[in-house]
Amino acid sequence: MTSAPQYDSTHDDFAASVSPLSPLFPEVIVPHARAKSSRFTVDKLLEGLNPPQREAVLHHGAPVLVVAGAGSGKTRVLTRRIAYLVSERKVHPGSILAITFTNKAAAEMRTRVVDLVGNRAKLMWVSTFHSACVRILRSEISRFNISRTFSIYDDADSKRLMQLVSRDLNLDPKRFPVRAIMNWVSNLKNELVDHESASQRVNTSVEETYLQAYQEYQRRLTAANALDFDDLIMTTVHLLQAFPDLREQYRRRFRHVLVDEYQDTNHAQYSLIRELCGSELQGAPDGLMADPPELMVVGDSDQSIYAFRGATLRNILDFESDFAGAKTILLEQNYRSTQTILNAANAVIVQNEGRTAKNLWSDAGAGDLIVGYVADTEHDEAQFVAGEIDRLSDAGASRYGDAAIFYRTNAQSRSFEEVFIRVGLPYKVVGGVRFYERREVRDAIAYLRAIANRTDDVSLRRILNVPKRGIGDRAEAAVEELATRLRISFGDALRRLDEVHGLATRSAKQLKAFAEFMDAHEQMVADGIPADRILTSVLQESGYLAELQGSVDPQDETRLENLVELVAVAREFVAGAAPAAAGLDVAGAGDVLDLDRDAGLVQREVGLAELGPQT
To answer: What is the mean pLDDT of residues 415-434?
Structure first.
């Protein structure tokens, strides 16, 4: 057996960005000291659970779908289930794979289970679909002749690459918008259709053009030794399908698989679970076919919000036919709302077609009536909501921080923000520019990516003249011409400046200095220097920090704070600790929230803006 430092799922975002700087993830569980005795008896684990919740926790054997209505305690069920497996059924934590949809949910689940059964629970794989696939690919992708140090392109990187592809293919941006091409490609990848077989899905001349872009986009990803987000899952599924022995290896490893938010899975994610847990699979060598792991999926067709990303309710509605012998458990008791709110919600959702029938109920009593208001204008609506928040606050019924306003589109926040500013109501917009999407953070991560992966042209060209170092578009184009002519990466061309045609002396000097800067930091990686020290050196030696420190723009002070936070995240990543949440916490402020982005959050008072038939 081999071993390596354990991967902490709470670092997924940072690790995905600079993964080549981190240790490769082990294929096997690290040997560990004998676990302490169980902290809780089975009676203690079941304490406070209602009968359906207990049934889910104690379930044994066949695949099970837990239909968990809103506020029905699904996280408690999942964590108690895992604790029960470890403490009572003596399941090795390393044989448990728990899939959630966000890093935050994964961290919360891990923390709760550790609180129940101790540190041995840290050996579980608790992560998002993408993070679990990254771990598998870092270990196994060489079977596809792809380097395990591949870069991971997020949405912004992918968009930039597709823009370059569209430009080089001379595509009219009005007729063939980059976002439309990317959506088409993403939908195909979510259906496990790669660029080689995509021609079978082409039905129009527009799609023929999209196909050309897809094929060139994928060729450049391969040349850059990079995968985009959709590739992570598609490639993992293809890997398991192409190598049945590998699939059986992971089926034998993961004897218990739990999936949260199953209603929001797409075809690729479903296929991954099918490969790991299905009972009728082809290709396994004789005698190597492992019995299916125990599978528990938790979801609710009424809470599906990601159809626009390819999620399909078929996965949850057809669960019992997809997995032989499967059963369904309904969680209908709500612990979050009053019966008045639930009655209104039930009356609305019952109109939906293609749903698992259930009726949410609560023992919290009827509660207050729902307040309705028909506004004449958006500002009238915002004024009413602001008045209600003030009224409740003045009456001592709530604080500003207890209130939230949900809206469907970003544009709808404008009227609320204007009114709140005018009346002096403190607020914060949740889901604005996220930490890892901020320009300075993306610049810093691009440096790390380019240092770790010389073939990552997108990252390298992003920071070629950031901060400004006198390298203009003409110089960049000259280097690109050499790379194209010799069929080498932009980074390799940068190291062969004597072969670049038409390069001004000053530009050549700046490019040479930049290449030497990158080489020096590549050597730091080779020498095993920790990521936080490399990042600090990059920010200092590149002049990035100096440029911000010398600026009179007040926004640059915030950018400096963000980079300090990023270095702290890197330091915690190296130390194996959970990174602190980035961003400001405005105490006592009301939240202005996006309805899609913030499903599942809990607030004391909630306003629904622009409520209508389509909301």
So the answer is: 80
Reported as a pLDDT band with limits 50, 70 and 90, residue 417 is confident
- What tokens does 430 get? 């949740």
Domain covering 9-144+232-331 assigned CATH 3.40.50.300 in the classification: yes
Domain 441-556: which topology?
Answer: PCRA; domain 4 (1.10.486)
- CATH 1.10.10.160 for domain 151-224: yes
Residues 117-127: pLDDT tens digits? 888 888 999 99
**Number of residues in the chain:** 615
Which amino acid is present at 406? F
Question: Under DSSP, is residue 465 helix (H, G, I), strand (E, B) or coil?
Answer: coil
pLDDT in tens, 164-184: 999 999 999 889 999 899 999
pLDDT digits (tens, 9 = 90+) for 19-65: 443 333 333 333 333 444 445 678 888 999 999 999 999 999 999 99
DSSP 192-240: T--TTTGGGG--SHHHHHHHHHHHHHHHHHHHTTEEEHHHHHHHHHHHH
Cβ atoms of 65 and 329 within 8 Å: the answer is yes
DSSP string, 551-604: ---HHHHHHHHHHHHHHHHHHHHHHTPPPPPPS---TTPEEEEETTTTTT---S
117, two tokens: 């059964």
| Closest by CA position to 102, among listed 201, 172, 12 | 12
- For residue 180, how many C-alpha atoms fall within 13 Å in the half-sphere facing its CB? 12
Burial tier of 325 (Cβ tally within 10 Å: 0-12, 13-18, 19+): exposed
Q: What are the DSSP calls for 69-127, one per residue? A: -TTS-HHHHHHHHHHHHHHTS---GGGEEEEESSHHHHHHHHHHHHHHH-GGGGGSEEE
Can you give the residue ranges of every domain in the chain? 9-144+232-331, 151-224, 441-556
User: pTM for this structure?
Assistant: 0.76
Task: Give Cα separations from 380 to 41, 59, 558 (angstroms).
Answer: 57, 52, 34
